[in-house]
Amino acid sequence: MCGIVGAVAKRNIVPVLVNGLLRLEYRGYDSAGLVVVHEGKLERVRSAGRVAELGQKSANTSGEVGIAHTRWATHGKPSERNAHPHMSRELIAVVHNGIIENYEELKAELSAQGYEFTSDTDTEVIAHLIHSHYAQGSLLVATQMALTQLVGAYAIGVIAADNPHLMVAARKGSPLLLGVGEGEHFVGSDMSALLQVTRNVVYLEEGDVVEIKADSFRIFDMAGVRVQRQMHVSELDNDSVELGKYQHYMQKEIHEQPQALANTLESVCNSQSLVPGIFGAEANDIFPHVDNILILACGTSNHAGQVARYWLEEVAGIPCNVEIASEYRYRTSVPNPKTLVVTISQSGETADTLAALNHAKATGHSYTLAICNVPESAIIRQSKLRLLTRAGPEIGVASTKAFTTQLAGLFLLTLVMAKVRGRLDETREQQFLHELRHLPTAMQKVLELEPQIAEIAAHFADKHHALFLGRGMHYPIAAEGALKLKEISYIHAEAYPAGELKHGPLALVDKDMPVVSVAPNDALLEKLKSNLQEVRARGGELFVFADADTHIHSSAGIHILQMPEHAGFLSPILHTAPLQLLAYYVALQKGTDVDKPRNLAKSVTVE
Ligand code: AGP
């Protein structure tokens, strides 16, 4: 949601803070700020704009300890006064990612003690609380005392004006990493912020508080007991978070899909058979007991789940439900201990999905599987089984390679379930493995459609609405295409199963309503063709992504883009890429901020 960076060193750390924020800007970009200790005073710079502006404003600032923040507004509108860091009486400064649920109560208590509030944020209470305890102890103790009073989620960084070589940081419910350098230490919301200075990282655990100096650090758990946490060496390389030859991260990430798919499928494609163990050692015991699947996810990840439902029911013959994570926990459902609860999340920290997972566990579900792109994320750690998608860091707010790798992971789940249930014979297993091995190459060929897609994007630039059609397992792909278009071009787009058109939405179709259709060569093709005629007869302009062997041809008002090959069950994965490219090129036409669309942020850690 928001991004945090902090540093303690024996050099000026302002460039580290600004570079770190630039890396974290995808997490929120409403406003930004930093604070350092300089000559015994807190020197704070904030900007209601982007991090680049903060960089300019802080060009003459320096200090050896500092914290910085890029914000996605929750409490209080995006403005300089609400930008972090927040301070208490020029002594304590805090940056915070998360939400303090009892802030109003705390604010009333602190106001009664004479503390003045200068922002509309929930974070400011943390600064005042720490200040209120600081006279009685060290910055570490004051922070620990303040944390006991907070209800909600937080990752925080804290510094004090009278302590120029010390930072305290803590996390509960929001991610925070400790970067270990040589004679200097850092914190960051994720690894991308730290790569500029170190690869050595400690993943702080729930409730950890860490006292950080340039030469040392001490970690304390939730109970205040000093603990040792393992240090990891990050495998992430700087190139994976650089734009390289691309204009936007979204374009880069669309083009990384062949490699991302190859990486996700690597272990399976190198072996001769599929085994439950790819989801964790316990899968061997759990999978035979599973009699249905419940998928919980949000947004794009939910669309992946919707495709998987078709696969799981048809190939593995196992009943499957897919629910929007934010809805699931608020309805009364009937738990079944034989359900495998699958959460899907790129970030692994989406609050709605995490809450849904915990709700499922609380109602008696013990078989949990996470399909996630971030190792050590909350969703991974809180699930019994896991499959890591290996898409690499996804920085564009619009999810692309995370989605197609989630689909690849879900197809593996389908095959393993089918095998466990005796529905996958050796020949079919080998055939599917062969198709999976070919998937990255097939995706590469699809991406070669880019110039044609860039051309048709011009037809959308002056439109206000668009319809997306698909049938069967391609209906969720149409929904994903519509989500991409609205998210980054701000064109209102909705998806329908094509057969549903005549039951209402057809009333919307006229020459100003472009209709995009996914048309694989499957059992529903003939029916889809009739639905497309219904659109054309009402003057609607059609843009059809058709398989090579569908024999649909371009004609007046019908633009056909031929997909290179037909991929059977894997077709939804391949049909996704052209829709991503379409949204991307329409957004370019409209001149929107592709990687940082308005009002959004990459990982949504609030409900
Ligand atoms: C997709 O383009 C979105 N930015 C959004 O729908 C996203 O997929 C959703 O917020 C879920 O995120 P997650 O996969 O990190 O849980």
| CATH class category name of the largest domain | Alpha Beta
For this structure, the quaternary state is single chain
Strand order of the largest sheet: 3-2-4-1-10-9-11-15
- Mean pLDDT across all residues, rounded? 94
Write the layout of secondary structure elements.
Elements: E1 3-8, H1 14-24, E2 31-38, E3 41-47, H2 51-57, E4 65-71, E5 86-88, E6 92-100, H3 103-112, H4 124-134, H5 139-148, E7 152-160, E8 167-172, E9 177-180, E10 185-188, H6 191-194, E11 200-203, E12 209-212, E13 217-220, E14 226-227, E15 232-233, H7 249-255, H8 257-269, H9 283-286, E16 292-297, H10 299-316, E17 320-324, H11 325-328, E18 339-345, H12 351-362, E19 368-372, H13 378-381, E20 385-388, H14 401-420, H15 426-447, H16 450-456, E21 465-470, H17 475-489, E22 492-497, E23 515-519, H18 525-537, E24 542-547, E25 558-563, H19 571-590
Parallel strand pairs: 16-17, 16-18, 18-19, 19-20, 21-22, 21-23, 23-24, 24-25
Antiparallel strand pairs: 1-4, 1-10, 2-3, 2-4, 5-6, 6-7, 7-8, 8-12, 9-10, 9-11, 11-15, 12-13, 13-14
Helix pairs in contact: 1-2, 4-5, 8-14, 8-15, 10-14, 10-17, 15-19, 16-19, 17-19
The structure holds 2-deoxy-2-amino glucitol-6-phosphate.
